[in-house]
Amino acid sequence: MSTVKIDKELEQFRSLMEVPSTFDEGFSWTALAGAVFIAILMVPGAMYMGLLAGGGVGPAAQWVTVILFIEVARRAHKSLKRAEIFVLFYMASAAMGQPFSGLLWNQFFVQSQAATGMGVAEHMAEVTWFAPTDPEILGLRSFFNPAWYPAIGMVIFSTIMGRLNGAILSYGLFRLASDVEKLPFPMAPVGAQGILALAEQQTEETQRSRAEVAGAENWRWRVFSIGGVLGLLFGTLYLALPAISTALLDQPIVILPIPFTDWTPKTAPYLNAVATGLSLDLGQMVFGMVLPFFAMVGSFIGFLATVIANPILFHYGLLPNWSNKYDTIQTQFSTNMDFYFSFGIGVAASIAIMGFWQVYKGLRDRARQQKKQQAVMGGQQVAAVPIDRTKLRGDIPVWVILATYAVTSLSYICLSGWLIDWHPGVMFVLVFFAYLYTPIISYVTTRLEGLAGQVVHIPMVREAAFILSGYQGGVKIWFLPIPLADYGIGAVFYRQAELTGTRFWSIWKAELVLMPIILVSSIVFAQFIWSLAQIPSADYPFADKMWELNAANGCIINSATLGRYSPFSDAFRWHYVFWGAGIGMALFAFMSVIQAPIMMIYGILRGLNQALPHVIIPQFIGALLGRFYFQRKLGLVWRQYVPVVAAGFACGMGLITVLGVGLNFLAKSVIKIPY
């Protein structure tokens, strides 16, 4: 009974879009021009917005670029193919990469009060590839100095290796999950439907007659436009007004609190150690409509469980550092350090174990089904093989995937080993990450993405491994380039490429062209922004307020290898880890017995890991509206509409955000004269 129920829900996502029978080349000079356009006009705005408000411009760069180039093509009486739009969309997103913006954080960290107070700063002089520590060099506020060359070289190495692995390994995992296991990838249509909406809008305008497109699914453009208008209206109030007013006034005009309104100090006497509040971002509600309904229900149930559990934990003295004067951030930090830091590791471990179990169960069930089919056919496999799309898509051999990963991982290991003086314990950790942990966790995440649109994350793996390595020689170990990543998250991107009929070689050619564009634009604009004012400072409110707190949190971990006492020792408790793992596994077993949807299980565990209620509540409201109002009114076609609405909403929000950031950036860049 449960199997049928789960499959029906997954089938709704599987049938949203069909894989086309033809695949086109998407890389063109148009896409290259779009990437350059982004690198010149959008990257500085995104970098500045991150310092100003803690977030970038979102999907603005992608949608602005794509719509602009479509309009230019239309006026030239041409149209862009779906594959060309997809690659343009991808290049616009990839061009927003800001690898050198991290150097702005590096220069602050080495001279922060937290690093100095916790004894980390005195060891940073050994980490030459992170940032120079000489106050005179830092006072110049210039990356074009020989003292910065090791850090620049490390950024270049990490960027090239990371993007190469991300492109090739994610592709290999996609082939395994999609071609072999036939998983639906429920979140893939969200981006793909937006691309189709833009392509259909061109079709409607350029075809010889309306009758020729009457049978096409041109509804996407109308639905996309509705979402875009909603995004423009809400974005004007939520993001554009504060951004523009910051440039004109001493204090920004904020009508809707960003990122959320905080009720914790008011509810503390009644809900001990519970963070309360609400995100007023309409995008969270739209996001809740897009995600699977039972995942949102599970998240809300998990949140309610923490609302009940936290006062009990506080009553029995398990949350001793919490105070009823704390706000949301302080409450989250104190309860994490007292209990949820370790408990969350256990919960995440149970999710990982569940993921492994699902992988094993899926492979076992597939093998049984194949045996049954062979028995029915008398042991003969005479069924017709489906259309082989591997040649049409431009697939590459498996040995290329494996060889690429082996070489890049070896590069990480050799470079880190040289930097750490070939410490035996650290070398073992590097090999473990490269050839065991990263492949396993990437595969599990790929399968969960393909099955339920979820990802698996085991926190503190890097930290635990480094501490257990026995290294006590300072802080160099925390700044090594290590072969630890989860490439399964990128597998859904290749599913989107497949749904839009894009040849995979288009993506890889785009990567080769994008690399120098990303590196050059990032360092040029990071240098320009740093030259405008000290970072952090009053000119950058978010960085000025949050960076010192982030540095303090980071130094807690960094101090664990100094050979002395560290707050990390107080935060990590094995018995809480086992509690989290045990409760997670017991919940999984119970939900399986009562035949609950698998998406609900993952949602509950997400809520148990003390996710902020500020975003869970609007997401749950959106899920309820989608399920019990829009879906009842529109039927199952709502599942096709809502991803397009979400894409349009993101576009509208992006457009208005770009306008606000642009005005703010121009105002801050004006040179003031004394007369």
General description of the model:
It is a single chain. The protein is an all-alpha fold. It has a domain at 2-23 and 59-81 and 184-375 and 398-514 and 570-668. 68% of the residues lie in helices and 1% in strands. It is built from 27 helices and two strands. A two-stranded antiparallel sheet has the order 1-2.
The whole-number mean of residue pLDDT values reads 76
Number of strands: 2
User: What is the CA-atom radius of gyration, in angstroms?
Assistant: 26 Å
Give the H and E element order: HHHHHHHHHHHEHEHHHHHHHHHHHHHHH
Distance between the termini: 80 Å
Outline the biggest β-sheet.
Answer: 2 strands, antiparallel
Estimate the strand proportion.
under 5%
